[in-house]
Amino acid sequence: MPKFTEEQQRAIDLEGENILVSAGAGSGKTAVLSERVLRKVMGGVPVNQLLILTFTKKAASEMKERIRKKLRKANLHRQLELLDSSFITTFDAYSMAIVKKYADNLNISSNLEVMDDVILSLKEDEIIDEIFEEYYDEKDSHFYKFLDAFTFKDDKEIKTKIKKISSSLDLVLDLDEYLDSYLDSYYKEENLNSYLKEYLKLITEKDNYLKKLINDFLGMIDDKYYNKVAELTNNYLASTCYSKIKENLNFKIPNLPKGSEEDVKNLKKEINNKQSELLDLMVYEKEEDYITSLKNTYPYVSMLLEIIKKLRARIWEYKTKENAYTFLDIEKLAIKLVKEFEEVRKELKNSYQEILIDEYQDTNDIQETFISYIAKNNVYMVGDIKQSIYRFRNANPMLFQEKYDNYKVHNGGTVIDLSKNFRSRREVIDTINDLFCHIMDQEIGGANYLDGHAMIFGNLTYENAAKVEDNCDMEILSYSMEDKEYETREKEAFLIASDIKKQIASKRLVFDKDKEILREVDYQDIAILLDRSTDFTLYKQIFEYLKIPITLWQSENAKAAYDLEIVKNLFLLGKKIYLHEFDTTFKLVYTSLARSFLYSMEDALIYHDLMDNKYQESKLYQDFKELVSDYETLSPITYFNKILEITDYTNKLTKIGTVATYRARIEYFYKMISNLEKKNKTLLEVTDYLESLCNTDLEVKLSLSKSDSNSVKVMTIHTSKGLEYPLCYFAGFSKKFNDSDNKETIFFDRNYGIVIPDIEKDCDLITKKLVVSKNRQEDISEKIRLFYVALTRAREKIIIVMPEQEDVKEVEDIVDKEERLNYHSFMDMMKSVLLKFSNNITNVKEIENISKDYLNRKEIVKEAKGEIKPLSFIDSNYSLEEEKTLHFSKETVGKKTIKEIEFMEYGSHTHELLERCDIKNKVLPTNITLKEEKLLSDFLNQDFFKVYSHMKIYKEYEFFDYENNTRLHGKIDLLLVGNDKAIIVDYKLQNTQDKAYLKQLNGYKKVIEKKLDIPVTCYLYSIIDEKFIEVSMI
Question: Sign of dihedral through CA atoms 644, 647, 651, 652?
Answer without folding.
Answer: negative
